[in-house]
Amino acid sequence: MEFIDTHCHIYGEEFDADRNDVVQRAINAGASALMLPNIDAASIDTMMALCRQFPGVCHPMMGLHPTELPEDPMPLLETMEQLIANDRQQASPLLKAVGEVGVDLYWDSSRREEQLQVFRHQTLWSCRYRLPLIVHSRSAHAELIHVLSPLKDQLCGGIFHCFGGTDDEARELLTFDDFVLGIGGVVTFKKSSLPGVLQRSVPLERIVIETDAPYLAPTPHRGKRNEPSFLPIVLQRLADIYGTTAENVAAVTTETAKRIFSL
Ligand SMILES: [Zn+2]
Q1: What is the CA(248)–ligand 1 centre distance, in A?
Q2: Torsional class of 46: left (φ above 0), alpha (ψ -120 to 50), beta (otherwise)
Q3: pLDDT band (50, 70, 90) for residue 107
Q4: How many CA atoms are closer than 13 Å to the CA of 216, on its beta-carbon side?
Q5: Ligand 1 center to residue 171 CA distance, Å?
Q6: In this structure, are residues 101 and 135 in contact, taking their beta carbons and an 8 Å threshold?
Q7: Distance CA 66, CA 112 (A)
Q8: Could you give all domains of the chain from N- to C-terminal order, each with its CATH number?
Q9: How far apart (Å, rounded) are the C-alpha atoms in residues 157 and 176?
Q10: How much is the pLDDT for 108?
Q11: CA–CA gap between residue 260 and residue 115 (Å, rounded)
């Protein structure tokens, strides 16, 4: 059973002690690719190092996370765009997406306007360099739509990562062509409303799977460190939700992920 973890931060210090084992366990469990979203300035080198160590398995993205804005984000944004521009000129570009970017008003709404500006700025990279957009959104659905709607025809697809919204929000997000919802450990939580939303409003062809490791480990690992080798648990839960087999969920979501990231 082949699957792709479309969103994991396994370059982080939580994995310093056993990172190679984590990647090996993922491969043994069936992972054919691990997609690594960038966070801030400091994460770039560790992310790229891991991708060099596991070429063809670990793939990097480039972006500034909404909760990690420096005092003045502009110099870092310029550096990141230069890295993307340089990478696009290589014979085999490494960067597979712009991410992770977005709006997070749950942790900090004091810099709302700045977050929207930085998100819009990076969304334009996705259009300019024809890279998919990996979007983080928390308590910010309206803001997200506000930024993305004017660019609807220029966008080239992507993932609304860690989707946890309502039926209406899911339907609105899926009006964006070639965008899908990233589904992870939350779908296994006992009181999650996500299974119902998926059943009613989201076709299997419009989701991909992700861990967001080290966060959001699925039941029965809930509260512990998450890692890509746990994804078969998510596949099985999705199989129950969609009334099919884990193998089929893996096949469909893997094909979707390969299309989005051009793997
Ligand atoms: Zn993330």
Answers
A1: 26
A2: alpha
A3: confident
A4: 24
A5: 22
A6: yes
A7: 10
A8: 3-261 (3.20.20.140)
A9: 8
A10: 83
A11: 25
Taking the centre of ligand 1 as the mean of its atom positions, its distance from the CA of residue 185, in whole angstroms, is 13
Q: Which residues contact 71 (CB under 8 A, 6 or more apart)?
A: none
Residue 135 Cα to ligand 1 midpoint, Å, equals 9
Which tokens go with 68? Answer: 């990690």
Compute, in angstroms, the gap from residue 36 CA to the centroid of ligand 1: 8
The reported pTM is 0.97
Task: State in Å: Cα 153 to ligand 1 middle.
Answer: 26
Two tokens, residue 12: 């982080």
Structure tokens at 164: 């946890």
Separation between Cα atoms, residue 249 and residue 230, nearest integer Å: 15
Where is 28: in which H helix or E strand?
Answer: helix 19-29
User: What percent of the chain has pLDDT above 90?
Assistant: 98
CB 185 within 8 A of CB 226: yes
| pLDDT recorded at residue 152 | 96
Distance CA 202, CA 180 (A): 9
Residue type, 136: H
* Type of residue found at 108: D
| Matching residue, tokens 């939303």 | 197
Going from the Cα of 28 to the center of ligand 1, the distance in angstroms, rounded, reads 23
Q: Which residues surround ligand 1, an ion (CB under 5 A)?
A: 100
What spacing in Å lies between the alpha carbon of 144 and ligand 1's midpoint?
16
**Rounded to the nearest whole angstrom, what is the distance from the C-alpha of residue 37 to the centroid of ligand 1?**
6
Ligand 1 centre and the CA of 58: distance in Å? 15
